[in-house]
């Protein structure tokens, strides 16, 4: 059962009974107590229910779901329940599923429905998928469109002209469109890179290299944060190289990873920030085969925390709050739909968190994987 499905079932049970014990949820959902506690914490953090000793209760008075079409409250203002919300993401794999689940859970909790379409980092395809959703009759739209390359500016101008509210997800208008009046919910990726660098420096490293995947649209923000942080900390540029690698598992990846590790060893680079988990796992694999001990000779922090805890050794990771990001974006969209009184543009940015495990040699924290 997906997390979003568990969340919907939990909310349904709480709406039906007013209060539910955690032990009952464990039995009903067929999952561990740890999973239930994590689920109810996420729902409580969004104000959808209230945690009490041993269980959960409704945050609002009992009486079933709100009447269709009647605005209810969120942290961003009133929202319209029962809305049909469209969402276009550049992928339904890697990174995006938790974002979609967060949006879906929020829309469902308001009595609405989320309709998802996947694109492919291409402005023309983005526009085609949005058009299909508009024909479907969506009332508001969550979109992660192309913001660079052929047709991107025209696409963004078009999104800004639509007669339904549009909220950008993990995207901001480029400098060429500084006054494009679209709401947005994003992750502070540059700040996340800085968290990783500062943690490694706190462990005694005087140089922190950056390794990014050539296919990653997040690389630009990570590089900005990494550069600003090594500059502000006065790190030696010679032991803080900026490197890129092919996607883990693609033709020739092993040889290029080996060459990168050899370069780091020659330059005395003892710490790396790697985007993303699959590339970090690949580097650790090649390091082990090449006789480089992790974390003894090389400390590694990954960016994303998709499968970092399953690495050997478990990877210290910067974790974007993807589920929360989707939830916030959906709340913005529902609030924008409800408010027709000149609501100002909202740009929300969520900070990622650092989860310390074994791969950088620090003491692992008690943060759940």
Describe the protein in words.
The chain has 369 residues and is α/β, with parallel strands linked by helices. Helices cover 40% and strands 20% of the residues. It is built from 11 helices and 17 strands. A 6-stranded parallel beta sheet has the order 7-6-8-9-10-16, with helices on both faces. It has a 6-stranded mixed beta sheet with strand order 12-11-13-14-15-17, with helices on both faces. β4 (72-74) and β5 (77-79) form a beta hairpin. α9 packs across α10 (277-289). It is globular.
Topology:
Elements: H1 3-17, E1 19-21, H2 22-29, H3 33-45, E2 49-52, E3 55-58, E4 72-74, E5 77-79, E6 84-89, H4 96-109, E7 113-118, H5 123-136, E8 140-143, H6 152-161, E9 166-169, E10 183-187, H7 189-202, E11 209-213, H8 219-232, E12 242-245, H9 253-267, E13 271-275, H10 277-289, E14 299-303, E15 316-319, H11 322-338, E16 347-350, E17 353-355
Parallel strand pairs: 6-7, 6-8, 8-9, 9-10, 10-16, 11-12, 11-13, 13-14, 14-15
Antiparallel strand pairs: 1-3, 2-3, 4-5, 15-17
Helix pairs in contact: 1-4, 2-3, 4-11, 7-8, 9-10
The mean pLDDT is 89
- Which class of secondary structure composition applies to the elements? alpha/beta
Give the overall silhouette: globular
Q: Spans with pLDDT under 50 lasting ≥5 residues? A: 60-73
How large a portion of the residues is in β-strands, by DSSP E? 15-25%
Biggest sheet features:
6 strands, parallel
- The spatial strand order of the largest sheet comes to 7-6-8-9-10-16
Order of helices and strands: HEHHEEEEEHEHEHEEHEHEHEHEEHEE
Distance between the termini: 19 Å
The number of distinct β-strands equals 17
Q: Portion of residues in helices? A: 25-40%
Total count of helical runs of at least 4 residues: 11
CA-atom Rg in angstroms: 22 Å
């Amino acid at each position: 059962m997906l997390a979003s499905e568990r969340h919907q079932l939990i909310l349904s049970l709480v709406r039906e009974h007013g209060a539910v014990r955690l032990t009952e949820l464990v039995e009903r959902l067929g999952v561990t107590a740890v999973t239930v506690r994590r689920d109810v914490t996420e729902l409580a953090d969004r104000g959808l229910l209230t945690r009490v000793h041993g269980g959960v209760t409704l945050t609002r008075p009992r009486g079933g779901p709100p009447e269709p079409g009647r605005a209810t409250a969120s942290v961003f203002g009133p929202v319209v329940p029962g809305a049909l919300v469209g969402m276009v993401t550049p992928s339904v794999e890697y990174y995006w599923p938790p974002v979609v689940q967060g949006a879906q859970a929020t829309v469902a909790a308001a009595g609405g429905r989320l309709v998802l379409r996947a694109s492919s980092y291409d402005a023309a395809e983005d526009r085609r998928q949005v058009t299909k959703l508009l024909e479907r009759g969506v009332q508001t739209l969550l979109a992660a469109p192309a913001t660079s390359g052929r047709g991107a500016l025209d696409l963004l101008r078009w999104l800004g002209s639509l007669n339904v509210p549009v909220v950008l997800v993990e995207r901001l208008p480029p400098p060429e469109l500084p006054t494009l009046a679209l709401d947005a919910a994003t992750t502070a990726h540059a700040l996340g890179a800085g968290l990783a660098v500062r943690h490694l420096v706190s462990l005694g490293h005087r140089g922190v290299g950056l390794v990014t995947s050539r296919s990653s649209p997040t690389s630009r923000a990570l590089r900005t944060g990494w550069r600003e942080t090594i500059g502000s900390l006065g790190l030696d540029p010679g032991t803080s190289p900026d490197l890129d690698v092919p996607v883990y598992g693609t033709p020739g990846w092993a040889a290029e990873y080996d060459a990168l590790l050899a370069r780091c060893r020659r330059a005395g680079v003892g710490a790396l920030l790697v985007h993303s988990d699959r590339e970090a796992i690949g580097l650790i694999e090649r390091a082990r085969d090449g006789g480089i001990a992790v974390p003894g000779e090389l400390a590694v922090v990954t960016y994303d925390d998709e499968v970092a805890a399953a690495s050997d050794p478990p990877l210290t990771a910067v974790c974007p709050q993807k589920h929360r990001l989707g939830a916030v974006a959906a709340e913005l969209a529902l609030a924008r739909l409800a408010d027709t009184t000149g609501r100002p543009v909202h740009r929300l940015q969520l900070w990622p968190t650092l989860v310390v495990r074994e791969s950088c040699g620090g003491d692992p924290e008690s943060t759940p994987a």
